[in-house]
Amino acid sequence: MNHPPSKPARRPTNASPSPVTFPSDLIVEVLSLLDVKSVMRMRCVSKFCNSLYTDHIFVKLHFNRSLQEPHLALVTTDYDTFRIVPYSVSNLLENPPITLADDPCYVIDNYFYPLDLVHQVIGSCNGLICLLSYSDIDSFFWLSFWNPSTRAMSKQLGFNFGLLNDPTSFKFSFGYDNSTNSYKVVMLKFHSDKLMIVEAKVFSVADNVWREIQNFPAVPFQMIEFRHQVNNGVYLNGTLNWLAIFDFKVTYVEVVISLDLGTETYKQIHLPPSFDEKPYVDPTISVLMNYLCFSYHFQDTHFVIWKMVEFGVEESWTQFLKISYERLHIHPYSMGPLVPFYLSKNGETLILANILQDQMILYNLRDNRAVRTRITNKISWFSVKSYVKSMASIC
Hints:
Elements: H1 24-32, H2 36-41, H3 47-52, H4 56-66, E1 71-76, E2 83-88, H5 89-94, E3 118-125, E4 128-134, E5 140-147, E6 152-153, E7 157-160, E8 168-177, E9 182-191, E10 196-204, E11 209-212, E12 219-220, H6 221-224, E13 234-236, E14 239-246, E15 253-260, E16 265-270, E17 284-288, E18 291-298, E19 302-308, E20 317-324, H7 325-328, E21 338-343, E22 349-354, E23 359-364, E24 369-372, E25 385-387
Antiparallel strand pairs: 1-2, 1-25, 3-4, 4-5, 5-6, 5-7, 8-9, 9-10, 10-11, 12-14, 13-14, 14-15, 15-16, 17-18, 18-19, 19-20, 21-22, 22-23, 23-24
């Protein structure tokens, strides 16, 4: 005798629905697409979400995806207040009239020292900004590392290099050693009477000590041309790079000196062969679309940019931009260095700063049109750094 098929048991009407669970891999993928602020808010959802905030693999994944949304760290000096404000490059390219918000979260206060300090931005790397602070009335310096996205500030690391009544000056650069996953600060000590670098040291955040390294083989351009405060060490893929003068007292040959932060050894890179003159406006080096670039003023008529297609290979220097001053609407005799900051993905718009005239220029390569940005705040353009929002920590 055939029995009718049994019907599935009905769930009681008052029963709770079965919990929905998502694979951990899917959660990681979703959270890595969020901005830093949203990820931090998700920390309270579960222990798993909270653990991601300090997970190195997740932090790196999130950072790599944040690279698609580049920012510039703008340094403002409104009302004698030192403020670093991350500003979206995409918004900058749209060029709306804007006044940066007076957000207290971006103010660098003197938390650790009662005296008024002078702050300088040494560099930006992986979402961390390295700050140098010092007092005008004593010989102490402080290094600190700040993440504007998470609002996390490291403790200040003080040191004394004895500046008072000393004919030496110091320059600092900041980068990341990929081989040891450690942030490093390089200090160069310049003797103004001897016109040479007399000491080079590296501070590794991993072991919190200064170590002497092989002395710098040339004189960084920034040590000679103090007035413009450009040409600091440029970070690129585990190296710091300076425009420098080799054999300063005799032949005055300009080169790029590259320091590998892993091996802590130098490499000398000659400039493009067509650059055989010393222009009255300082040349500069920068990084555009992950290429080391060299730019200079050509015969008082054009601004020229070369890129090194294969890093470290001098034969790979390639000229890829030559822009007339007429197109930029500037007079070559009334300007300081032009510093390139960013080239859009499609290669259509170049962002560069005119240091002496204290303005930033957006130049559209397709229609050869230049416009000035419409930010009303007073910006220290020579201190502007590329920046990517991340959850990077110095700890």
